[in-house]
Design goal:
Layout (H helix, E strand, L loop, with lengths): L4 E4 L9 H6 L1 E4 L9 H10 L2 E4 L7 H6 L5 E4 L9 H6 L3 E3 L6 H16 L2 H9 L20 E5 L3 H12 L3 E5 L5 H6 L2 E3 L2 H7 L2 E4 L13 H6 L5 E4 L8 H9 L5 E4 L19 E3 L8 H19 L10
Parallel strand pairs: 1-2, 1-3, 3-4, 4-5, 6-7, 6-9, 7-8, 9-10, 10-11, 11-12
Helix pairs in contact: 5-7
Family: Belongs to the D-isomer specific 2-hydroxyacid dehydrogenase family.
Protein name: D-glycerate dehydrogenase
Keywords: Oxidoreductase
Length: 321
């Protein structure tokens, strides 16, 4: 009996594929930092029973409709806005993601961005490496305190709550905005629900963790940044498209806000000549929210288990559809 065929769109460690290799013929794109070209992706999708995909891969209606044998798409991410969920559902294709396993790693990264931006860590490290440190001064590279400040979390899902737990350790006042109130978090974390613009007005650090939806796309626009304190720092570890980058650039240039820590962007990878990368008050990272070795291994293993379960006629662990 012929084994089902599975295509993986980025190079993964061999040890995460053991179970999948036992039940399927597996082909893997051999590059870690290079996306699969569209024509290759279309060709592979046409013959695949399963696909293990990245958030940067575009699985639109055109591709899915040509994938006549496809049973499962396992996305190596919490998000899945790169996949046309409606078309997949109509075609009977199961879509899975990898929630939970990356919650704490992403929350660590979000809080790292808060600290790095507020305390000018990257700027200070470069200052030393570039040989500019000739003497000590009372306000040399002085940043802003994080402890006892107010954090406003937009998107109070698992990661949002994990960020709030870390903020609690810094004695921060915790505000949040979410589609739905989170009564348990309000009690356990002493978090206060706020209207979006009220949260922006009161927060010293605004952290975007909202999923990308029609409502959240471009929600951080000129009006949003103008609602924030001049001393406020904006952190985005959610979705790049939630931010109007031209409005963010304007806010930083005009000192409407003090700084930004960004792990995601409207277009990735970001152009090295992008205006945001020219600003000292911006800490920019290459979308590494969940990028610890332990977490990425767990994500890959979960994605593989989801494919194995579907191909074996069982229920996946983390289905989206």
């Amino acid at each position: 009996m012929q084994k089902p065929y599975v295509f993986i769109t980025r190079k993964l460690p061999d040890e995460t594929l053991v179970e999948l290799n036992q039940i399927a013929e597996v082909k893997m794109w051999p590059h870690e930092e290079e996306a699969v070209p569209r024509d290759v992706l279309l060709a592979e999708a046409r013959k695949a029973d399963g696909l293990l995909t990245m958030l940067s891969d575009n699985f639109d209606a055109e591709l899915l409709q040509q994938a006549s044998s496809l049973k499962v798409v396992a996305n190596l991410a919490v998000g899945y806005d790169n996949i046309d969920i409606k078309t997949a559902s109509n075609l009977g294709i199961t879509v899975c993601n990898t929630p939970d396993v990356l919650t704490d790693s992403t929350a660590d990264l979000a809080f790292s961005l808060i600290l790095a931006t507020a305390r000018r860590i990257v700027e200070s490290a470069n200052y030393v490496k570039e040989g500019k440190w000739n003497s000590w001064g009372p306000l040399l590279l002085a940043g802003a305190d994080v402890h006892h400040k107010t954090i406003g979390i937009v998107g109070m899902g698992r990661i949002g709550e994990a960020v709030a737990r870390r903020a609690k350790g810094f004695d921060m006042k915790i505000l949040y905005h979410n589609r739905n109130r989170k009564p348990e978090a309000e009690v356990s974390l002493n978090a206060e629900y706020k209207d979006f613009h009220e949260l922006l007005k009161q927060s010293d650090f605004v952290v975007s963790l909202a999923p990308l939806t029609a409502e959240t796309k471009g929600m951080f626009n000129r009006e949003a940044f103008q609602s924030m304190k001049e001393s406020a720092i904006f952190i985005n570890v959610g979705r790049g498209a939630a931010v109007d980058e031209s409005a963010l650039i304007e806010a930083l240039q005009n000192k409407t806000i003090a700084g930004a820590g960004l792990d995601v962007f409207e277009k990735e990878p970001i152009d090295p000549k992008h205006s945001l990368l020219m600003m000292k008050q911006v800490v920019a990272l290459p979308h590494i929210g969940s990028a610890s070795v332990e977490t990425r291994m767990k994500m890959a293993e979960l994605a593989c288990r989801n494919i194995v379960n579907i191909l074996n006629g069982k229920e996946p662990e983390t289905p989206v559809t």
